[in-house]
Amino acid sequence: MTLQATLVETAEIAPHHPDNAARNRLVIAILLVSTFVVFLNETIMSVAIPHLMGDLGVTASAAQWLTTGFLLTMAVVIPITGFLLQRINTRPIFMLAMAIFSTGTLACALAPGLELLIVGRVIQAIGTAIMMPLLMTTVMTLVPPESRGKTMGNISIVMSVAPAIGPTIGGFILANFDWRFMFYFTLPIAIAALVLGALRIRNVSTPRYAPLDVLSVILSAFAFGGLVYGLSSFGESFAHTGEAGPVPLWLPIAVGVIAMGLFAWRQFGLQREDKALLDLRVFQSRNYTVSVSMMLVAMMALFGTVILLPIYTQNVVGLDTLETGLLLLPGGLIMGLLGPVVGRLYDRVGPRVLAVPGAILVSAVLWALTTVGQDTAPWALLAGHVVLSIGLALIFTPVFTSSMGSVRMELYSHASAVLGSVQQLAGAAGIALFVALMTIRTAALTVEGVEPVEALAGGIRAAFLVGAIISLFAVLAAFFIRKPEGGAPGHGGGH
């Protein structure tokens, strides 16, 4: 195709040319470090909420806005990233993302109260939302199909190690310093990445005119924002009070579903003229659709487990925040270390050989977690989390690589934006579902006269049971994932 040929030519993708190869490696390395920082920031707050409630004198439902506001902003901004990546070149969009993130981090560090802290988190989220699609699109543009698995393996390090060590670093900082040091810790790294990127990153994309449909932006904000807010509120209301807040729980979800329908209808009309905010033609690829479906289930399981395990270890087993962080650390590190190995295996054997056993391992652990109780040994939880992490490592790299490689080059920015949006929705849905089920079951057992700690353990088992049932869909989907031919349809048989 002419457009693809032009894009390839102007992006100067020439792996055999040493100058381009060195430039490309540097660009991807800087993007990886920067994405690591923003992902670390996303989870470092997870153990800090109780401390912030005490320090700032706020309720749990108010403090949760630090997480909800972040997720909500991500959900609203990510659909727009497809447009931004088409209009703005690599270096300026990177500098914009990291400058916004650094500004937000500084605002959080200096915040005198909760309101400005939430504002800082929202600014951070805008920068974070741009980074992941930028990294994915750049990798797909620069790396030839036969080497993509290896590079995506490096990306999975970022996606797994950063969230894994976030709670551990957060727990250590809170045990020894003021909560503001969480932001003072990430700020210099973010600024260093910004300066290095400004000096060394070269433009590797080809900006082209892309119209911005304002109605699509508004509809996507209501669609993704409504669903993420509704699902998060659903989880939080059950977590903290067991009852609804001033807004009925169903209302934002209903608004989100209706807006999503209108948004999809609008995109179908606009994509005929290549004017869509999110081009839904990415779903014409069966492989992309299967991969995204599998990602949805995997992210629900991951986020649901990540939110429940700390509740279980602290409130049932009796571990403190630092011990909980250390318990979850090995799994995350193993997932990260496996990333490049799985990536190289992907390049050699394709996705199915990896994704099927990965999905089976994730499902097996979730089924095992349905048996936890007060007397479950911490080492058993550690072993379960390690096996879960190995399973997710076998899923993420194949899913990312095969999904992005299954679409045409001019749709890469849209494909990465859709994938990012699905991740946010799945994360919010996983948290909401698991927490709501846990709370409903705990309340029911308490009414029956079960002792509180045992009732909570029963609630957690019920949540893991539903998670285990959902995971069976990922096992089924894994059998249908295949390796894209030569990278993407229309690529002329590869490089």
Question: Mind explaining what this structure looks like?
Answer:
- With 495 residues, this protein is mainly α.
- It has one domain: Up-down Bundle (Growth Hormone, Chain: A).
- 78% of the residues lie in helices and 0% in strands.
- The chain has 17 helices and no strands.
- The protein is globular, with a radius of gyration of 22 Å.
- The N terminus and C terminus are likely disordered.
Protein topology:
Elements: H1 2-10, H2 18-44, H3 49-56, H4 60-63, H5 65-87, H6 90-110, H7 114-142, H8 148-176, H9 181-200, H10 214-240, H11 250-270, H12 286-317, H13 321-349, H14 352-368, H15 378-405, H16 412-447, H17 452-478
Briefly, what is this?
With 495 residues, this protein is an all-alpha fold. The chain is built from 17 helices and no strands.
Mean pLDDT: 81
Task: Give the domain tally.
Answer: 1
Q: How far is the first residue's CA from the last residue's CA?
A: 15 Å
Order of helices and strands: HHHHHHHHHHHHHHHHH
Number of strands: 0
Question: Under the CATH scheme, which class?
Answer: Mainly Alpha
Determine the number of helices (DSSP H or I, runs of at least 4 residues): 17
Uncertain regions: pLDDT < 50 for 5+ in a row? 1-18, 487-495
- Envelope shape: globular
Strand content: under 5%
Q: Structural class per helix/strand content?
A: mainly alpha
The second-level CATH architecture is Up-down Bundle
The Rg value, from CA coordinates, equals 22 Å
**Major sheet: size, sense and barrel closure?**
none
> Residue share in helices?
over 70%
CATH topology: Growth Hormone, Chain: A
CATH superfamily: MFS general substrate transporter like domains
